[in-house]
Specification:
Order of helices and strands: HHHH
Strand content: under 5%
Low-confidence stretches: none
Structural class: mainly alpha
Largest sheet: none
Number of helices: 4
Length: 106
């Protein structure tokens, strides 16, 4: 009666085992904006090419898979949440009464 749980069980819920629907929407929007800019703007100089290609490259960078996280966008959101949320952690563990006793003895 041994049960084997694969390490990548969450990837079955993802599109192509990598992307969430929002990731594909973000990538598609960035590529679409890049394609529209390619047809509308002249690209005579290097800086114009960089401006035109930037939305597609930025959206592709955000959805790149990263080990231990889902993608770069997830890392940015986690860092933002860490730095903007409260930092006071309330202990509610199984030995919470022991902690109060230790503090009272000091």
């Amino acid at each position: 009666m041994n049960y084997l749980i694969p390490a990548n069980t969450k990837s079955g819920k993802l599109i192509l085992g990598i992307f969430k629907p929002f990731d594909l929407i973000l990538l598609g929007t960035g590529v679409l904006i890049t394609l529209v800019l390619l047809t509308m703007l002249p690209m005579n100089y290097t800086w114009q090419v960089i401006v035109v290609v930037a939305p597609g490259l930025l959206s592709a960078f955000l959805v790149i898979p990263v080990p231990n996280y889902h993608n770069i966008l997830t890392i940015i959101i986690e860092c933002y949440t860490f730095f903007t949320c409260r930092r006071r952690y309330i202990w509610k563990g199984w030995c919470v009464k022991d902690v109060k006793d230790v503090q009272n003895n000091k």
